[in-house]
């Protein structure tokens, strides 16, 4: 078994919503990013790549590559899952913590878990997604940005 930790953060800007865990969340903000800026999926990707020792999101999906401009993070996650599969790894568990004052994801958490479990090719019970605030502290608390941390557990397939 191998463990990986992922982290991502993006600046909040005025807008009409953002993708989090593959789900569009309507709110008064958007995320400043080269891709769709999905901090949850970016954090998941980095945790999986770290666990498998296969690099990081920036080395695989450069922000200098035009084909990654505005790309759906779910497309990137599918490519990472194919890479894990090619290296004979399978996901055991993913634990996600979104750090933000806004938007609130409580009512969308089940849908996020639905999307991610499909993309990660695991049962829903293998994906945990929760959110916390920083009680007004730091860039998240001041609503200048949003961050996410993920811990993943993978294992090498025997066959």
From TrEMBL:
Keyword Lyase: yes
Enzyme class: lyase
BP-aspect Gene Ontology terms: isopentenyl diphosphate biosynthetic process, methylerythritol 4-phosphate pathway; terpenoid biosynthetic process
Keywords on record: Isoprene biosynthesis, Lyase, Metal-binding
Cofactor: a divalent metal cation
Pathway involvement of the protein, from the record: Isoprenoid biosynthesis; isopentenyl diphosphate biosynthesis via DXP pathway; isopentenyl diphosphate from 1-deoxy-D-xylulose 5-phosphate: step 4/6
EC number: 4.6.1.12
Matching InterPro entries: MECDP_synthase, MECDP_synthase_CS, MECDP_synthase_sf
Domain 2-C-methyl-D-erythritol 2,4-cyclodiphosphate synthase positions: 1-154
A Pfam family it matches: YgbB
Catalysed reactions, semicolon-separated: 4-CDP-2-C-methyl-D-erythritol 2-phosphate = 2-C-methyl-D-erythritol 2,4-cyclic diphosphate + CMP
Keyword field contains Secreted: no
GO molecular-function term, one example from the UniProt record: metal ion binding
Family annotation (NCBIfam families): ispF
Record's protein name: 2-C-methyl-D-erythritol 2,4-cyclodiphosphate synthase
């Amino acid at each position: 078994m191998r463990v990986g930790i992922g982290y991502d953060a993006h600046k909040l800007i005025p807008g009409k919503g953002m993708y989090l865990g593959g789900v569009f969340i309507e709110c008064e903000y958007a995320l400043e990013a080269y891709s769709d800026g999905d901090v949850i999926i970016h954090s998941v990707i980095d945790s999986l790549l770290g666990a498998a020792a296969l690099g990081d999101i920036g080395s695989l999906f450069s922000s200098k590559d035009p084909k990654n401009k505005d790309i759906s993070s779910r497309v990137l996650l599918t490519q990472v899952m194919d890479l894990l599969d090619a290296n004979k790894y399978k996901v055991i568990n993913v634990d996600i913590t979104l750090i933000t004052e806004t938007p609130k994801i409580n009512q969308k958490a089940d849908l996020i878990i639905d999307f991610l479990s499909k993309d990660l090719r695991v049962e829903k019970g293998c994906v945990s997604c929760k959110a916390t605030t920083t009680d007004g502290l730091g860039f998240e608390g001041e609503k200048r940005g949003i961050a996410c941390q993920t811990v993943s557990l993978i294992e090498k397939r025997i066959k």
